[in-house]
User: What shape does this take?
Amino acid sequence: MPNPTRPRLLTGDTPTSTGLHLGHYVGSLENRLHFQDHYDCYFLIANVHAFTTLAERPADIRANTLGIIKDWLAVGLDPERSTFVLQSEVPAIAELTFFFAMLIPFNKVMRNPTLKTEIDTKGLGDSYPFGFPMYAVGQCADILAFRPELVPVGEDQEAHIEMCRDVAGKFNQLYCGVNNRTPPDEHTAHGGLFPIPKAKIGRVARLPGLDGVNKMSKSLGNAIFLTDDTKTVQKKLNKITVQPDATTNLVPQSHVLLQYCDAFLPEERAKEIRATYAAGTDVMHGHIKAELGNALNNLLEPMRQRRAKLEGPTGDATATAVIRQGLTKANALAEQTLDLAKQKLGTHFGPRNLTFP
Ligand code: TRP
Assistant: This one.
């Protein structure tokens, strides 16, 4: 059962692809597994946000949504201990988004570095819809609807969390009488509705993809997926090119293979490998890749087994049931936040009774 006496935490994924990869794992999923036993956790599927880039392919968004729920279950996120939240079915999020949009200067949204990077890497040019920058405001509502203390995310999301902190602070000052010199940690003690949430970056802030250049990402084709089978994992690792630097004749310490050793081998072993490369010893890259392959496959095997049981229509039914299970609790909390926010905003004219399954 979710534990209401624990501090709250919220984080989420956007269903823009069918499955999660190792970058998601070390950047966030691993953290979530740990936090499940220490926080009252809310895990959100940002399926409305997926329409920012996939509005013409709603069936894909639906399939991706079910796929991500299955990945969560396969990794070990547990709907009995944590609350899964489907964004589109929590109306309070959409309602809060509109009010929050008034608290952020338009130009500040447009200067948000995370949005800018996405426009570049996804090649959106200047043809993206109005709703694309809007999602950053929506993300503030995703978070604040649940009034969490902690938001575990990848490094790329930090700008969004910063914006969310600004919005929460501004709301508390404008509508709850919090002083503008009140430290962030003391807002609720001074009458603020929203705790100012903190970002928590994963063990590996940015996992490079197999190309060794970009962040691991499905759309760049440089990812190892949690569902990749044993052979595929090894094949992908084997394709990594390892070339010594032309002037030093050494494999640079920043090389992706070494970053993977740090991320997936025991710390001592990774250090040993780094030292061998630094000494310029003739290292057998193939052996290192095999060692990494083993480590990765050991990590992934239990997930693959759980994921395999969720294939097909019964898996879809399980994922759907899990979504419905989370919505009652998610909506109870989000509706309460909205009700309190409306009292502060002066838009409250008595309670409303929307009923949810
Ligand atoms: N934008 C996040 C991503 O693409 C997903 C997300 C949506 C999220 N709403 C959130 C993450 C709220 C944390 C909190 O990764």
